[in-house]
Amino acid sequence: MLSLSNKHGVDVIDDKKLAALAKKNAAKAANSQGKKGFGKRYDVTRADLPTDEAALKALDEQERFFKEMKKREF
């Protein structure tokens, strides 16, 4: 078992075990390729996000425009 209880009921983890767990999780995250279907929306009736260069450029321009408009007060 990784954790021990101290007199206050709070779990205490040994530093070596914590470091090993962090290293294991970092290695697992580094090997991860991401979720399958990344970029899909939760609503199946909507289209996927575009992947062509022109559409991505248009989306970036829209994001930039709306971020700029959020900064302004009317």
Q: Summary?
A:
The chain is mainly alpha-helical and about 70 residues long.
Report what the structure shows.
With 74 residues, the chain is mainly alpha-helical. The chain has one domain (15-71). The chain is 49% helix and 8% strand. Strands 1-2 form a two-stranded antiparallel sheet. The chain is elongated.
Mean pLDDT, to the nearest integer, reads: 78
- From the alpha carbons, calculate the radius of gyration and give it in angstroms: 23 Å
The strand order across the widest sheet is 1-2
What is the count of DSSP helices, taking H or I runs of 4+ residues?
2
What oligomeric state is this? single chain
Question: Main traits of this protein?
Answer:
74 residues, mainly alpha, 2 helices, 49% helix
Topology:
Layout: E1 3-5, E2 11-13, H1 15-31, H2 53-71
Antiparallel strand pairs: 1-2
